[in-house]
Design goal:
With 329 residues, this protein is α+β, with helices and mostly antiparallel strands. It has helices at 10-26, 34-49, 95-99, 145-155, 174-183, 194-202, 218-231, 244-252, 263-266, 318-324, and strands at residues 55-60, 76-77, 84-93, 106-113, 125-131, 164-168, 186-190, 211-217, 234-240, 261-262, 273-278, 289-290, 294-303, 308-317. The strands form 2 sheets. Strands 1, 2, 3, 4, 11, 12, 13 and 14 form an 8-stranded mixed β-sheet that branches. A hairpin with a 4-residue loop joins strand 13 and strand 14 (308-317).
């Protein structure tokens, strides 16, 4: 039987979208204007998205939770020609990081066949745990974080003290922080942007992080799931409501707020695509750098069907971009 022929890799095309968003947003680095940086990224992302040969629908948009400018849920993007795809975008993952000139902001996008991405609806937040493939069978959101850390250590042939957990630095995580410290694992606290943390936890070729844990954005969780599939890692999530009213609204909309969701629940397709470009530098990627005549970017491009992960470093001649591109670079 002959092997299946490679088909079109959308990730190679959507990286142009994240590069454009990163280049535009980077002009606002450290200028203290979150919405201006986000708006620049949104505008650039939308313009380049509309050149991609696809019939895309935004399932995961950016901005509802913090009233930022956004590519809205339900917006149609692309040329309108096949394939039909669901789109998830985060034009600036870490808007505060960008505004304050701190490390770690990214431009992020994921795509999957139409009808395969989880729609968070009213559920803004999700409890998440992400690990590499060697620990895939060890994690369980119904167990304590300490039990999970001990199980991951056993599955990977190490001691808990050898593990590093990345977590958003939030008051809601005080108990989780105590559990990590009591077990003896190392803790890496981040101020914003847990997509990068999830990638590092799932990516066994970059062993800086062994686990992402905590309550973060549900949209970011769906985007992370696309990358986790490509990286061969594991992820579990559970919707986390902020009030009885929000919980009831989710239940009324048909969501099981107590269910544990795995990567197949968050994106059911086996062929999904992920791209991200660094805006400010981080453990994951270099940030945008501007020279006299050019700018450089560094991006990750992934496809789950093949398990291929590409690191793309690009140099962009600003004179050419300004002459031919519709984006204001």
């Amino acid at each position: 039987m002959s092997a299946e022929k490679p088909d079109r890799n959308l990730a190679i095309e959507i990286v142009r979208v994240t590069e454009a968003a990163a280049l535009s947003a980077a002009r606002w680095q450290g200028r203290g204007e979150k919405e201006s940086g986000d708006q620049a990224a949104v505008d650039a992302m939308r313009k380049v998205l509309d050149t991609v040969e696809m019939d895309g629908t935004v399932i995961i948009g950016e901005g509802e939770k913090d009233e930022a400018p956004m590519l809205f849920n339900g917006e149609r993007v692309g040329t309108g020609n096949p394939p039909e795809v669901d789109i998830a975008v985060d034009p600036v993952e870490g808007t505060r990081l960008l505004a304050e000139g701190r490390p770690g902001s990214l431009a992020v996008m994921a795509a999957a066949p139409a009808g395969t991405m989880f729609d968070p609806g009213p559920c803004v937040y999700m409890e998440k745990i992400v690990v590499g493939g060697d620990a895939a069978e060890a994690i369980d959101l119904d167990l304590s974080l300490a039990d999970n850390l001990n199980a991951v250590a056993a599955a990977t042939g190490r001691e808990p003290r050898d593990l590093t957990v990345v977590m958003l630095d939030r008051d809601r995580h005080e108990q989780a922080k105590r559990e990590v410290r009591e077990v003896g694992a190392r803790l890496s606290l981040i101020t914003d942007g847990d997509v990068a943390g999830g990638l590092l936890a799932a990516w066994e070729d970059r062993p800086q992080v062994d686990m992402l844990y905590g309550v973060g954005g549900t949209p970011e969780g769906v985007i992370t799931a696309c990358a986790v599939k490509a990286l061969g890692g594991a992820m579990l999530g559970r919707l986390w409501t902020r009030s009885d009213e929000e919980r009831q609204r989710a239940i009324d909309d048909g969501y099981d707020v107590d269910a544990v969701l795995d990567v197949d629940d968050l994106v059911s397709a086996d062929d999904c695509f992920f791209a991200c470009t660094g805006i400010t530098p981080s453990q994951l990627l270099r940030g945008v750098s501007f020279g006299r005549r050019s700018a450089s970017t560094e991006s990750l491009v992934m496809r789950s069907k093949s398990g291929t992960v590409r690191l793309i470093r690009a140099q962009h001649r600003l004179e050419k971009l300004r002459q031919y591109a519709s984006v204001d670079y």
